[in-house]
Amino acid sequence: MGWSYNSDPSASNLDVVRFLSGQTSTSDDVLLQDEEINWLISSKPNNFHAAAGACDMLAARYSATQPRGESYGKTRLDWSDRVVDLRKTAKSLRAQAGLEGVTPFVGGRSISDKRSVQNDTDRVKPAFTIGMTDHPGTKQGSTVSS
Fold first, then answer.
1. What are the sequence ranges of the domains in the chain?
2. How far is CA 8 from CA 20, 91, 94, in A?
């Protein structure tokens, strides 16, 4: 099993996932091995989901193996706080994953743009349009008498 982090998320997916999940510490307390992260990368749709999975794995590990709290003199360490933080990070990463690759479209900024969109036969027609409730044979704003 190995551990690596080159401090360059633009260089590899492994570094991206370590960076996003906060698993960049080179100290002796390595939490996720490269092989575990590489499996997440291969099994998830993108790096944000892989990083969220890494946080979920760590939260599960802390929940299963760490005591609820430890005291060292007057200092108390509560591992459940770490689990909550990891779950929040995973939720945030999943929200970011939903936005990855999304580019907003603003149409109708010019007359030619609006006509181009209207004349595109391959474009999906909108569900709602101006005049969609108008009745044939009547003029907009007029009333029908019986």
1. 13-99
2. 12, 24, 22
